Amino acid sequence: LVSLLLIGIAAWGIGFGLISSLRVVGVAIAVGIFLFLIALVGLIGAVKHHQVLLFFYMIILLLIFIVQFSVSCACLALNKEQQSQLLEVGWNNTNSARADIERNLNCCGFRTFDPNETCLSDCFRSHQCRPCLLVIEEYSGMVLRFVGGIGLFFSFTEV
User: Fold this and answer.
1) Which SS3 state, helix, strand or coil, does residue 99 take?
2) Region of residue 74 (phi > 0: left; psi between -120 and 50: alpha; otherwise: beta)
């Protein structure tokens, strides 16, 4: 179920033009396919009563649980300052994500709006843009809590 959700959300994001970075979509689809294959291994092991296959399935599932639990706890533990630092690092390292954010959230610049820089947002023509940090901060805390909670839920249901 989780694997199909990952694949579907990645395809939906690229289909609606929300994500233009093929690397992000590729990673989401690859993780979805990996989880689907692991579930298939568990299903085959259970149907055939194959103990070795089930043993390796449980080991891989334990490793996935540890990673998923750790990432979920990290999402829930980030404070506003750490979120801001992570957002700035991401902003400075990727031009394609920067263009997507400016276009989708209708903002320009990270901390301040500079009319001399190029921006793909609709508000750039009227020079009435908000800095993207303010817009992103409205959503980032809520999204991190949501993703952390969902991650914890699925990590414990996997066990």
Assistant:
1) helix
2) alpha
Burial of 102 (0-12, 13-18, 19+ CB in 10 A): buried
Six-digit token string for 31: 């993780």
CA distance from start to end of the chain: 15
Query: According to the model, what pLDDT value does residue 80 have?
Result: 86
Closest to 102 measured CA to CA, from 84, 125, 80: 125
User: What would the pLDDT profile of 18-74 be if each residue is shown by its tens digit?
Assistant: 565 667 677 777 888 888 899 899 999 999 999 999 999 999 989 989 998 998 899
Residues in the chain, how many?
Answer: 159
6 and 32 in contact (C-beta within 8 Å)? yes
Q: Which one-letter DSSP state was computed for residue 107?
A: B
Given this model, what pLDDT does residue 53 score? 93
Count CA within 13 A, CB hemisphere, residue 7: 11
